[in-house]
UniProtKB/TrEMBL annotation:
Keyword annotations from UniProtKB, A to Z: Ion channel, Ion transport, Membrane, Transmembrane, Transmembrane helix, Transport
Keyword Membrane assigned: yes
TM region positions: 36-54, 66-86, 92-111, 118-142, 190-211
InterPro entries xrefs: K_chnl_dom (IPR013099)
The protein, known as: Two pore domain potassium channel family protein
Domain Potassium channel: 166-214
Organism: Flavobacterium luteum
Entry's Gene Ontology BP terms: monoatomic ion transmembrane transport
The UniProt record lists the keyword Repeat: no
Length: 220
């Protein structure tokens, strides 16, 4: 199973990320989305993320397996987790670390490819969407620890704030910036700018690499 996940890793990861970020638009029932759809999305993302790795270093393999298990367990018991401030923060940190882990691995695999392909393009898009998810959990962690770090948020619990910060993450990394949600504190502003810069650098670097490889291939 792991070999098949690795073969189609970028395609499956892109589907999982697309569902996580955008299927809320088609599910107006907030309670159903929170209790059923969101956990399903997170579990699917955890499973598809597992296929990204194909490492031989034992310590990385152990760390990956532990983070993978937590990424599956957390959505299943999230209603219990949110009753504890410590467990909630720990969950956010686990997702941030795990997805950073995957993001770095995606970059490594893309840069190691000698030529561009559909798989590399899928991987590049997946990396970009994954960066949005990492930003989303980072903003959520900031707002959880320091309430009112962002203006324009409607406070109806963590799931509601999660959805609003998902939108804010997209507009920030894509530099659209509508301004309906905005960082208010030094920490939230600096983290927002950090992800904005990383997002722009990612786009410029990856697009440049893909175009140069296609150009080089066409000249052969």
């Amino acid at each position: 199973m792991n070999s098949k996940l690795h073969t189609y890793r970028f395609e499956l990861l892109l589907i999982a990320l697309t569902l996580l970020l955008f299927d809320k638009a088609f599910i107006p029932n907030h309670q159903f989305f929170t209790k059923v759809v969101w956990p399903f999305n997170m579990i699917i993302l955890g499973i598809t993320s597992f296929g990204i790795f194909n490492e031989r270093v034992e310590i990385i393999k152990i760390a990956k397996n532990i983070l993978f298990l937590f990424s599956i367990i957390i959505p299943l018991i999230f209603e219990f987790i949110v009753q504890s401030s410590m467990l909630t923060q720990l969950s956010f940190w686990i997702y941030i670390i795990y997805y950073c882990f995957i993001f770095i691995e995606i970059l490594r695999q893309i840069f190691e490819k000698s030529e561009s392909s559909i798989s590399v393009i899928f991987g590049s898009v997946s990396g970009y969407l994954l960066l949005i998810v990492i930003a989303q959990f980072s903003f959520l962690l900031i707002e959880f620890n320091y309430p009112n770090s962002f203006s324009g948020l409607q406070k109806f619990g963590i799931p509601s704030i999660y959805n609003q910060l998902s939108y804010f993450s997209m507009t920030s990394i894509t530099t659209v910036g509508y301004g309906d949600i905005a960082p208010l504190t030094d920490t939230s502003r600096l983290i927002t700018m950090f992800f904005t810069i990383i997002g722009q650098f990612y786009l410029v670097a990856l697009v440049g690499i893909i175009i140069s490889r296609f150009t080089f291939k066409s000249q052969e």
